[in-house]
Design a protein that fits this description.
The protein is α+β, with helices and mostly antiparallel strands. It contains five helices and eleven strands; from the N terminus they run E-E-E-H-E-E-H-E-H-E-H-E-E-E-H-E. Strands 1, 7, 8, 9, 10 and 11 form a six-stranded antiparallel beta sheet that branches.
Length: 236
């Protein structure tokens, strides 16, 4: 399983798509409130271990900070939700951070952000903020970081394959892409190239894709379902 990938049992989730962070890098933002520094780091995480790795790494990096508060939400159905105040007054850090993730609108009226780990490192500035001030600071820190982080659409796709002669593979792949199909990994065998397409995970979409391949190849090739995968797509 690649970093940031949901586990295999997510193939059985009720959700067929959700929004997450773009993979491959952390996203950082710093907020100062009454001389206290709030350094927020966001990371895509598909498992609890990956989410906790971010906390552990930031504890080492910012070893002299007073607090390393955290929250994460994981899974297409957002079934895993955790938070930690890490020494701040109960309910003033982790829960506001988690709510900032859960209530984040990724489209008008849509709150489906998941597979995200957030850590806020606080350096105390000498001025007490009070419970309300802490709640606002931790919530705003995560929200401001999300404003800057690029998002992607994570969709469950049925992966189907078709084997075609090497000489015909390039043209067929171009035609499939032009038809709006999402291409998965291509493999090369001795006598054939195996093209794989990722179509929406429903019977009508699979039937339409199969018909399209038949049309493009004059009936010489067809699609065979190979299973499901979660794939990243541009976020509108």
């Amino acid at each position: 399983m690649k970093p940031g990938e949901p586990s295999a049992d997510n193939a059985d989730s009720r959700a067929t798509s959700y929004t997450t962070l773009a993979a491959g890098q952390d996203f950082r933002h710093e907020l100062e409130v009454k001389r206290s520094r709030f350094i927020t780091v966001l990371r895509r995480a598909g498992t609890e271990d990956e989410a906790r790795d971010l906390v552990a790494g930031l504890r080492r990096e910012f070893h002299d900070a007073r607090h390393h508060c955290s929250a994460f939400v994981i899974g297409p159905d957002r079934t895993v939700q955790r938070s930690s105040d890490d020494g701040e007054p109960a309910g003033t850090a982790g829960i506001p951070m988690l709510e900032a993730l859960l209530k984040r609108e990724t489209a008008p009226g849509v709150t489906d952000l998941s597979d995200v780990s957030a850590v806020v490192v606080r350096y105390f500035g000498g001025v007490l903020l009070g419970a309300g001030g802490l709640v606002r600071a931790y919530s705003e820190s995560v929200s401001a970081s999300l404003d800057l982080a690029p998002l992607v659409r994570r969709s469950r796709r049925r992966v189907c394959s078709t084997a075609v002669p090497h000489a015909a593979a390039g043209r067929l792949e171009n035609d499939l892409r032009a038809a709006g199909m999402v291409m998965a990994e291509t493999t090369y065998q001795d006598r054939h190239t195996v093209l794989r397409v990722a179509v929406p995970d429903d019977a009508d979409a699979i039937a339409a894709a199969t018909e399209r391949v038949l049309q493009l190849t004059a009936g010489s090739a067809t699609l065979t379902p190979d299973g499901t995968e979660w794939v990243d797509e541009p976020h509108d």
